[in-house]
Amino acid sequence: xxxxxxxxxxxxxxxxxxxxxxxxxxxxxxxxxxxxxxxxxxxxxxxxxxxxxxxxxxxxxxxxxxxxxxxxxxxxxxxxxxxxxxxxxxxxxxxxxxxxxxxxxxxxxxxxxxxxxxxxxxxxxxxxxxxxxxxxxxxxxxxxxxxxxxxxxxxxxxxxxxxxxxxxxxxxxxxxxxxxxxxxxxxxxxxxxxxxxxxxxxxxxxxxxxxxxxxxxxxxxxxxxxxxxxxxxxxxxxxxxxxxxxxxxxxxxxxxxxxxxxxxxxxxxxxxxxxxxxxxxxxxxxxxxxxxxxxxxxxxxxxxxxxxxxxxxxxxxxxxxxxxxxxxxxxxxxxxxxxxxxxxxxxxxxxxxxxxxxxxxxxxxxxxxxxxxxxxxxxxxxxxxxxxxxxxxxxxxxxxxxxxxxxxxxxxxxxxxxxxxxxxxxxxxxxxxxxxxxxxxxx
Length: 443
What we know:
Layout: H1 2-22, E1 30-32, E2 35-39, E3 45-50, E4 57-59, E5 63-64, E6 67-72, E7 86-88, E8 95-96, E9 108-110, E10 117-118, E11 131-133, E12 141-144, E13 147-150, E14 155-158, E15 167-169, E16 176-177, E17 190-192, E18 199-200, E19 213-214, E20 222-223, E21 236-238, E22 245-246, E23 259-261, E24 268-269, E25 282-284, E26 291-292, E27 305-309, E28 313-314, E29 327-337, E30 350-360, E31 373-375, E32 382-383, E33 396-398, E34 405-406, E35 418-421, H2 426-434, E36 438-440
């Protein structure tokens, strides 16, 4: 009976709550004609989605159900909209969010004088966009040679892909290239940046497949994630000295990139920063690169030599399948080598130096079939499972007394291996228990 009363009280409470809110407009999506929208805190409307189809020219409403339209939300238009060729944004709209007007067939857009905020390229994916209309007296925006900029903070927001230009000189004074600003502009072959540019946003030049020449100004401090990903025609790149890290996916799948010059003060290489750059031959990292991220140089099949000095972390899969890698120098500072970091580096024959390492991860050097001998550095504490598995040419390994943990299959498939150990060490006991031939090091 008591449980029944509790359920009844709960039901009455929910019923009362429902009645209390019945006379208020619910928070969430509304629909009027071809538009879904939200009501903002100030009572105005943000259009969140265009749900119509087949219209070639669209003039957005300045009011919906008696409320002023002041904002366009993320992805208001669908990139798969293949019919809309012209959009006019009405006066009264104050802000346009990222990707708001991404229509595959869009050729022309008109922006109002009331606009005071615009997100990352709202026209991303508009491959046919040719004309952006902004009044000459606009307080916030301007169009120069067909390209959209902000006046106050000097951002380049959008280079319309439909311009089909081959070369472009960014005007002097521009401080920032916005995210996706040149995304997928396949006609471009050369872009010249002024010294005033300090920031390149994420994916700013992504998928510019024919871009083979671009300068990075010395004053550049921020290089966004994926900034040049899928730029398959780039051949060389010099990172400016003020850039202290190369972020994730920055040069991902730049398939013809051959040479990268790094500044002396760079401290990190991000996740997949140079992954799948099969023609990268030269990437001389300076001393002091503290962290090399996961998959950083994955499948850089032409990379021949690697010098990693002062590094504390080499991420999982960082150099996996770098089949051309022949010589590696690792001189770390409490360095941890991640799982599968050098897996499948079938050309790796030797370590020029191998020191300062505390942990060798799971499968870190597995299937390095040309590797013949390894001196594990003093201070190494852990060698994880399968760390050297499948290294079929490995005949000699030296293990220091500092090693306190070795995975059961760390040397699986190393049929001709002999390990040199310290008398009474953990390594000696490990070899005895796992049937691995070993020698006691004599002082």
